[in-house]
Write a structure and sequence with these properties.
This protein is of the alpha+beta class. It is built from eight helices and three strands, in the order ααααββαβααα. The chain has a three-stranded antiparallel β-sheet. The N and C termini lie far apart (about 50 Å). The relative contact order is 0.12. It comes from Ovis aries.
């Protein structure tokens, strides 16, 4: 019972780069029933031990891991490049979101690396036009703004989709791409 809840919760915990700084610490949720509610099949002592010790340890370790991850990101080369080229993560996020919202019809919003200038740049490509082939930028992060990417959930409200997409970006992958092309 606890493991199913823990699994569904873990999918929600993939943090976006800019969200970690403002995220509140996780806390041990109360059980919706008394420790003795499952007796005689599972006794109260076992439930109390698993909830107050084991589950609490997972929550505490999650908080520690997120703090270490946030610190690593804050010291990371990608975040430094974002700050250098856009002023702050918030400004970068705002600009990439605006460019992505502004794509007419179908296409992509991109964070790319300009190898010649050694700088990050934001671009948009219509339809299936490739970023590198049309702009020369090396793709680091692409946001799909074709309606098929969001229509079933967000209908035609692209800004709502773009607000949500920041919660699922794989920053480890973006960072690895940046590290590989910026050397």
């Amino acid at each position: 019972m606890l493991s199913r809840a823990a699994c569904s919760t873990s999918r929600k915990l993939v943090p976006a780069l800019g969200v970690l700084g403002s995220r509140q610490k996780h806390s041990l949720p109360d059980l919706p029933y008394d420790y003795g509610a499952l007796e005689p099949h599972i006794n109260a002592q076992i439930m109390q031990l698993h909830h107050s010790k084991h589950h609490a340890a997972y929550v505490n370790n999650l908080n520690v891991a997120e703090e270490k991850y946030r610190e690593a990101l804050e010291k990371g080369e990608l975040l430094e490049a974002i700050k250098r080229d856009f002023g702050s993560f918030a400004k970068f996020k705002e600009k990439l979101t605006a460019v992505s919202v502004g794509v007419q019809g179908s296409g992509w919003g991109w964070l790319g690396f300009n190898k010649e200038q050694g700088r990050l740049q934001i671009a948009a490509c219509s339809n299936q036009d490739p970023l590198q082939g049309t702009t020369g930028l090396i793709p680091l992060l692409g946001i799909d703004v074709w309606e098929h990417a969001y229509y079933l959930q967000y209908k035609n409200v692209r800004p709502d989709y773009l607000k949500a997409i920041w919660n699922v970006i794989n920053w480890e992958n973006v960072t690895a791409r940046y590290t590989a092309c910026s050397k």
